[in-house]
Automatic annotation (TrEMBL):
GO terms for biological process: protein histidyl modification to diphthamide. Pathway: Protein modification; peptidyl-diphthamide biosynthesis. It comes from Mycena belliarum. InterPro entries: DPH3/4-like, DPH_MB_dom, DPH_MB_sf. It catalyses: [3Fe-4S](1+)-[protein] + Fe(2+)-[Dph3] = [3Fe-4S](0)-[protein] + Fe(3+)-[Dph3]; 2 [3Fe-4S](0)-[protein] + 2 Fe(2+)-[Dph3] + NADH = 2 [4Fe-4S](1+)-[protein] + 2 [Dph3] + NAD(+) + H(+). Residues 4-60 form the DPH-type MB domain. This is Diphthamide biosynthesis protein 3. GO terms for molecular function: metal ion binding. Gene3D superfamilies: DPH Zinc finger. Keywords: Iron, Metal-binding. Component of the 2-(3-amino-3-carboxypropyl)histidine synthase complex composed of DPH1, DPH2, DPH3 and a NADH-dependent reductase, predominantly CBR1.
Length: 103
């Protein structure tokens, strides 16, 4: 429909690592949000949860089509402790399925 409040380049948005979303300040005081997952799905509409405004995010889908493994633990891999590592892996899988359910 083209009824966007604004068009914002992804470079101008802020990355919230904790929530896994890009966000941009909304005039209502809240902020527009779009998840990295949405970007990977070629969604370019960020919405503000507090009001009905939406913005169009300008980005290159190629940058997001393949979600990299966010394996920050890799740097501190403790060798010889495979037992607890298996537990951690199952934990991560649980979180992954939880995240993908919130579609
Ligand atoms: Zn708003």
């Amino acid at each position: 429909m083209g009824a966007y409040y604004d068009e914002i380049e992804i470079e101008d948005m802020a990355w919230d690592e904790a929530k896994g979303v890009y966000h941009y300040p909304c005039p209502c005081g809240d902020r527009f949000e779009i998840t990295r997952r949405q970007l990977a799905d070629c969604e370019d509409i960020a919405t503000c949860p507090s009001c009905s405004l939406i913005i169009r995010v300008i980005f290159d889908p190629l940058d997001f089509e393949d979600e990299p493994d966010e394996d920050e633990d890799e740097s501190q891999s403790d060798e010889g402790d495979s037992g607890s590592d298996e537990n951690r892996f199952e934990d991560a899988m649980e979180k992954l399925s939880l995240t993908s359910e919130g579609d």
